[in-house]
Amino acid sequence: MSQALRTLPTEFVERLWRIVPPRYQPGVLRALERRRPTTFRANTLKTTPSVLQRALAERGLRATPVHWWPAAFVLRTGSLRDLEATDLYQEGHLYVQSLASMLPPLVLDPQPGERILDLAAAPGSKTTQMAALMGNTGEIVANDSHPIRLQLLSANLARQGVTLGAHTQTHPLINRVSLARAQAEALGSLEDLRREIGDVLPIFAYPSGGVDPQVAAQLALAGFALAFTTERGLNDLHTADPLRLRRINVGVQTPLAALRAQLVPATSALAAAVAP
After folding, report:
1. Does domain 104-274 have CATH number 3.10.450?
2. SS3 83
3. What are φ and ψ of residue 72, in 5° steps?
């Protein structure tokens, strides 16, 4: 028996051979016995593939991109430990991930402004990848049933520069529940985030965009400074209700001028809202 098979549970091996046709089994064995290289991807929320590649070379680590996605790399010199010791890793400019794990988000092809449900999301490899593909716009509801893994998910999202905002704890349409429950859902979600990752901005995202004036007023009483609906568009700094903001779509290919035009109103409103 192959050494690789000896390390796997018997039930797993039996099921594997029921799924894989005999003519492909030798190839599967060779893949199981082959030592996998260290692979990772550039976090395009913080850098670009070419900038990351040069920065790693300056630190003595050579990496080459794979042919099917320029943001994915194979580490050619140095070890995983060397890579994780760099400031680039610790500051979230890259994410260590198997190439196979990178494929599902690429096949899904999430677009800026879309809404994604990610079940069993921890530790966050595909979640953070989808957030980068979406340009940190839109909405990803990432869930996991295990408390420790959920904490790891939150930490990875924060490190990768994914914007974390309060949502709710049970995802109701809060304009269709009592005001008391709406406030409890929003505050409970905010406290969950603070407990897991520390300080977070008092920002809220309405589930499915559901909002009405009473709910917005309740969020204001609860101390939220900004809240986002799912309505697309720009926000007028002087007239927009900070608790009923529209969303903007900014992707990795957005021209710098368009990026500035869309971000200036939002960042100015944020600065004014959270100023002491």
Report:
1. no
2. helix
3. -100, 140
- Residue 238 has a pLDDT of 76
* CA 58 vs CA 65, 72, 79: distances in Å: 17, 19, 15
Answer yes or no: are the C-beta atoms of 158 and 140 closer than 8 Å: no
Q: Is the pLDDT of residue 276 over 60?
A: no
d(CA 86, CA 80): 10
Q: Which residue has the tokens 């799912």?
A: 230
The type of residue at 195 is R
Structure tokens at 144: 């996991």
List, for residues 66-104, the tens digit of each pLDDT value: 999 999 999 999 999 999 999 999 999 999 999 999 999
Burial readout 218-251 (b: 16 or more C-beta within 10 A, e: otherwise):
bbeebebbbbbbbeeeebeeeebebbbbbbbbbb
Q: How, if at all, do strands 63-66 and 69-75 pair?
A: antiparallel
CA 250/CA 136 separation, integer angstroms: 8
In contact, 240 and 102? CB cutoff 8 Å: no
Cis before 105? omega within 30: no
Instruction: Note the pTM of the prediction, 2 decimals.
Output: 0.64
Q: Are 64 and 73 in contact (CB under 8 A)?
A: yes
> Rounded distance, CA 221 to CA 241, Å?
15
Residue with structure tokens 């340009």? 135
For the segment(s) 3-101, the CATH number from 3.40.50.970, 3.30.70.1170, 3.90.550.10, 3.40.50.720 is 3.30.70.1170
Over 70: is that where the pLDDT of 169 sits? yes
